[in-house]
Amino acid sequence: MVNLKRLDIELFCWVGGLAGLAFSNPTQTHWSICPLKNLGFRYCPGCGLGRSISFLFHGEVLKSLQTHPLGIFALTLLLHRIFVLSKRQFFPSLT
């Protein structure tokens, strides 16, 4: 039986974050919460990862790889984490 009173917040955040990337326009520039970028550094190893995943959701694999080469790996890792958390949340007898 699903315990909705104890919904896993991590699962909710990952699904919400990926849904936000799926519905966002990756070609549009927006504000950044990157602390390195906000401190004036020109390079950050994580910048572009979200846009890369957004390009993947829009079917633009080449642009995704150009934006950040680890976008496909990050999306695969996040989908796996969502699967594990969903299995634990909704089918606890299988874990």
Explained architecture:
Helix content is 58%, strand content 0%. The protein has helices at residues 9-23, 35-38, 49-57, 61-67, 71-90. The mean pLDDT is 89.
Taking all residues together, what is the mean pLDDT? 89
By secondary-structure content and strand pairing, the structural class works out as mainly alpha
Spans of at least 5 consecutive residues with low confidence: none
How many strands appear in the DSSP assignment? 0
Count of helical stretches: 5
How far do the termini sit from each other?
Answer: 14 Å
Helix content: 55-70%
Main pleated-sheet profile: none
Shape: globular
- What is the radius of gyration computed over CA atoms, rounded to a whole number of angstroms? 16 Å
The helix-strand sequence is HHHHH
The percentage of residues in β strands lies in: under 5%
Keywords:
95 residues; mainly alpha; single chain
Task: Give a short overview.
The protein is mostly helical and 95 residues long.
